[in-house]
Design goal:
Layout (H helix, E strand, L loop, with lengths): L1 E3 L5 H15 L5 H14 L4 E7 L2 E9 L2 E7 L8 H12 L2 E7 L3 H9 L3 E8 L4 E9 L6
Parallel strand pairs: 4-5
Antiparallel strand pairs: 1-2, 2-3, 3-4, 5-7, 6-7
Length: 145
Amino acid sequence: MIRKFKKEDIDEVMEIWKKENIRTHNFISKEYWKNNYEYVKDILPNAYIYVYIMNENIVGFIGLNNDHIEGIFVDINNQHNGIGTSLLNKIKEEKEKLNLSVYKKNTNAIKFYKKNGFIITGESIDKNTDEIEYTMTWKKDKSTC
């Protein structure tokens, strides 16, 4: 089940955020994610967030800031079950266009987004990590509406 984020979800969401960032971004120091934990915890509730609930637990979430996807995170034990795609499709229902940033070295995420209709539209250096990141964009196909 997908529902909107509630304030009381913050600890479960942040645990997924921390674990999955450290796991999937092994090319960035763990300390970077740990050092940004409190900052993200403070600003996260300002984003537009949906959570995915399974057996009364949050197993994934998507965060959006206007048309920019801040991230899709799914707990490792629940990946490859369509949860990320379901969260993404929920947002696609509401938007005409979406964009996001993804690290070039995060090849699994890039494949996921390409499979879901995103294309690479730019490249830059993340000044916080000195890593190359792609900008990816999706636009609703007007012919299928």
